[in-house]
Amino acid sequence: MLVGVLLVLLSIAGVVALVRSAETRTMVYAAREDIGVGETVGSDDLIGVEVQLGDVERRYVSEASEAAGRVAVQRIPKGDLVPMSSLGSADRLGRRPVSVNVTDVLPTAIVAGARVDVWVGLPDGRNGYAEPKLLVPAAEVAHVETSSSALGGQRETVVHVLVDPQQLPALLGAQANKAKVSVVWNPSGGGS
């Protein structure tokens, strides 16, 4: 009988230890606001949260000092945990943000993190434009800002897209030559 009681007590102690280990929470950091690609991350950009991550805990920022001074190499939405892989040095970025002015109304789906295709119609020399050509497929949107001119004039939207260095000369050349540049939402996120 004593052995039976001892086994029951050991069993209860084992279950209690298992439950306590499952309840272990650790402090990691999440983005206080959206953090765009290329932005330097500081402790003010982070908020501590207690979570249960288990074996994947080491993949996330667990001390604010781990992020300090590093830049975001991918977009981190507000409230998301900050993965270590999303932070790095500026030389890891590769892509460059380019501002594209758009006078057309954009779909509401074109927000930071969305993918867009950038189309360009070059001037044809007859007060018109040549047929548009796809210049930058599946570019990631870094930021969108909308403004209107004084006295309620024409509304203009600036879409900041991340462009690979080899695509920069063609896009910047088109803009310098007064091309009609359009951005088209690419819901699949794939290149054409």
Give a structural overview.
The protein has helices at 2-22, 64-67, 168-176; strands at 26-31, 46-51, 71-72, 87-88, 96-102, 115-121, 133-148, 155-163, 180-185. The radius of gyration is 25 Å and the shape is elongated. The protein contains three helices and nine strands. The chain has 192 residues and is α+β, with helices and mostly antiparallel strands. Strands 5-8-7-6-9 form a five-stranded antiparallel beta sheet, with helices on one face. It has a two-stranded antiparallel ribbon with strand order 1-2. Strands 3-4 form a two-stranded antiparallel sheet. The longest helix is centred in the first third of the chain and has 21 residues, at 2-22. The model has no long low-confidence stretch (mean pLDDT 83). β7 (133-148) and β8 (155-163) form a beta hairpin.
